[in-house]
Amino acid sequence: MTAPPGRRRDSAKTRALLLQTARRRFARDGYSATTLRDIADEAGVNVALIGRYFESKEGLFEACLTAAVDELRRETGEVPLAEVHLVIADQAARIGPEGPPSQLLLLLRSSGDERADEIRRGVLRTSAERLAAATGNSPADPGTLLRAQMVLAASLGIVLLRSVGAMEPLQSADRDALAAPLRDLVAALLPGR
Amino acid sequence: MTAPPGRRRDSAKTRALLLQTARRRFARDGYSATTLRDIADEAGVNVALIGRYFESKEGLFEACLTAAVDELRRETGEVPLAEVHLVIADQAARIGPEGPPSQLLLLLRSSGDERADEIRRGVLRTSAERLAAATGNSPADPGTLLRAQMVLAASLGIVLLRSVGAMEPLQSADRDALAAPLRDLVAALLPGR
Amino acid sequence: MTAPPGRRRDSAKTRALLLQTARRRFARDGYSATTLRDIADEAGVNVALIGRYFESKEGLFEACLTAAVDELRRETGEVPLAEVHLVIADQAARIGPEGPPSQLLLLLRSSGDERADEIRRGVLRTSAERLAAATGNSPADPGTLLRAQMVLAASLGIVLLRSVGAMEPLQSADRDALAAPLRDLVAALLPGR
Amino acid sequence: MTAPPGRRRDSAKTRALLLQTARRRFARDGYSATTLRDIADEAGVNVALIGRYFESKEGLFEACLTAAVDELRRETGEVPLAEVHLVIADQAARIGPEGPPSQLLLLLRSSGDERADEIRRGVLRTSAERLAAATGNSPADPGTLLRAQMVLAASLGIVLLRSVGAMEPLQSADRDALAAPLRDLVAALLPGR
DNA sequence: TATGAATGAGAATTCATTCAT
DNA sequence: GATGAATGAATTCTCATTCAT
User: Fold this and answer.
1) CA-CA distance, B161 to B154, in Å (whole number)?
2) A112-165, pLDDT tens digit by residue?
3) Which of B174, C33, C115, D84 gives 20 to 30 Å between its CA and that of A138?
4) What is the reported pLDDT for B97?
5) Domain-embedded: residue D6
């Protein structure tokens, strides 16, 4: 009621806005090619607020990564093997010039910060492990794990190529167009029990 | 009678040394995270020589890209469909902490320079097209092209994950260990005629 | 209650200070012999602020030039022919080791920047034209214009020689000492109608 | 006879070529805006030769200045007052985009080197003194000296404005067109006995 | 809470100069 | 005598970060 009408004065909202913007920029352009001023300007807030809310550029990146990881966990909780290709198609399909930030791309961007890198690697590892587990084979079987990692790699590669641009028809294929070949790919690499 | 012991004085060799070092650093760390001083120091020469031989950082990057593209063309001239998985395994297997620079990784690094980006995209596009052509299907068939692009994406993803590190067993799988699942992957996506 | 004692924190004042310092240095030493660090140090502020307020070295130079031109226009609005020598004497007399920056000297310094050069040339041209017009002769008469340009040239030359130093008595002649010969000079070149 | 036909191997000629080129560039662009590579390239010889023949950039500049001074002395030995305006018109008329290097312009360019600056100032001082002496008045009379310095200043200003460009009709006035107003100017400032 | 001013470190690039052939 | 390779210092510019209001 006391807040001015035009101006935001909501710390939580400002923080979230910065986070969202940062996620898109970091994912799209990489860590070092993205400047804090870019992010702040695009978010329409003052640069110094990044320091206030996230301590530093690395802190902001870590926050982005954590947020992406959380969202990813929520979205891909327990996926049965038969639907894995659909989840991948889903993730890939949302990559686009103006879309929401992609969680997956961020997993491929390094800040050089060791802690952030460890988070990245941890997520990648457990993602592959969960995928391997979904096959019903022994979770420790190296063959299955290797193949699961390849499925993960393929997914990331597709996301990446879409983001690079200028690769038609991959670039603008929709979810369904992506799902069919992905089903074959998953089936070939992870035959299930 | 032979080369002087202490100091090099061979422009071609210096240039090549810089190029090789730059290729590895750019491929590993990306364009903007790599400083010219990094490259020069690792190559053991003065930074100013980069300007001398390559004009600018962008010029150096373009030279790296061109070199990578040339090498890639030479190595993957006309590959029959049945051997595609071997070539991919080959490329992926050479990724390692100390190995020679990977041509493929560089294709995923952008400098923001439009010309370099166009080279990158061109190579990616024609690579997928050659792959599609190798199936014997109509080269214009969008379904085949999409699947070829996915094979390419998967290859790049694997290379990328290996370079991220800490993904066992993918990380240290050798050529043969990679070849088997890759054969299945290629066969599933590109059934040939 | 008043301004803080130790540190300034006033963007307008800082900008003006940089501008003033830059005008003197550029005028005295020329564009390329003047470094941004020189200017910033003399102004007692951080170098990066130049980028903040003026974009680049060229931007700063252009700002100096524009400021000089404005001031010059204000000071020499409509001068009757009989007083031209006084205005020139005035401008020349203020040249000194520690005095305020001279607008005139700056008109002789080139930055190589085409836009700035065009400003310079424009001011020089119109100054001569106004001088020619003050004679009451036809403004298009090439003879009068040539002579007006010579008066301008003489004025600039005097300013320049004073700034070079070590030319006595010219060096330390005051306004009145300069005015007498200048009156003869103007009268000889521009006899009026 | 042993010298190769196409290639020059004549140290005196190379030195002279460098000197001539340097004089034009220094005069036209100023000391710090001129790079040694510019000069060497324009002269068609290797940069390192500048070091060999002139020690350093400052050495080269000093050599240019000395050469200009010598030439000037030779050309303007004992000029009777009645012909001063012709000599000035002569010097000014040779300024042009492609002409030979102007000795006068160089007198206005500073390298920051104290020795060179002293040479410059010395020449300027004695030139004015000789001019004053030509009037037949007492050489120590400050009024006459001041006026002689003004004539010198006017000459330099005209040369300078011609070199700045885009000042018509001054820019392309020929010797005779310049001579008439110059006669008036000299007569007005230095009435002779 | 938010803003804009100010700073210092580091980046690319230019350039005079020295070295080896 | 001449050339091209190599170097180190300096310059402009960018950017994350801190400070004052």
Assistant:
1) 10
2) 999 999 999 999 999 999 888 888 877 677 789 999 999 999 999 999 999 887
3) B174
4) 64
5) no
- Determine, yes or no, domain membership for D178: yes
- Residue D145 exposure: Cα atoms within 13 Å on the Cβ side: 16
Number of domains in chain D: 1
A188 touching B (Cβ < 8 Å)? yes
Mean pLDDT, residues A92-101: 72
pLDDT tens sequence across D37-68: 999 999 999 999 999 999 999 999 999 999 99
Residues contacting residue C155 through CB under 8 Å, at least 6 positions apart: C88, C91, C92, C104, D157
Indicate yes or no: CB of D150 within 8 angstroms of CB of C154: yes
Task: Kindly state the tokens that stand for A183.
Answer: 């089903």
- Angle among Cα B165, B169, B171 to the nearest 5 degrees reads 30
Cα–Cα distance, D123 to D107 (Å, whole number): 8
Q: Which two tokens stand for residue B56?
A: 């600018």
Q: Which domain holds residue A43?
A: 11-189
pTM: 0.90
CA C123 to the chain's CA centroid: 11
Q: What is the pLDDT at residue C94?
A: 85
* pLDDT of res. B101: 62
What lies within 8 Å, CB to CB, of C59 at 6+ separation is: none
Among D88, D120, D156, most C C-beta atoms within 10 A, so best to mutate, is: D156
Give pLDDT tens digits for D86-97: 999 988 988 776
| The length of chain A, given as a count of residues | 193
pLDDT at D103: 79
Rounded Cα distance between B25 and B47, Å, is 15
**Which pLDDT value is given to residue D94?**
84
CA distances from C56 to B21, C10, C62, C63, D188 (A): 33, 21, 10, 10, 46
Domain assignment present for residue D24? The answer is yes
Amino acid type, A8: R
- Number of Cβ atoms within 10 Å of the Cβ of A179: 18
C 66-95 residues, CB < 7 A, strand F:
none
Give how far Cα B174 sits from Cα of A108, A125, B86, B184, Å.
23, 19, 12, 17
Across the range C43-65, mean pLDDT stands at 96
Percent of chain D with pLDDT over 90: 64
pLDDT digits (tens, 9 = 90+) for B25-41: 999 999 999 999 999 99
Q: Does C119 touch chain D (CB under 8 A)?
A: no
Q: Is residue C62 part of a domain?
A: yes
Task: List strand residue ranges (DSSP E) for C103-159, in order.
Answer: none
- CB contact under 8 Å between A149 and B142, yes or no, is no
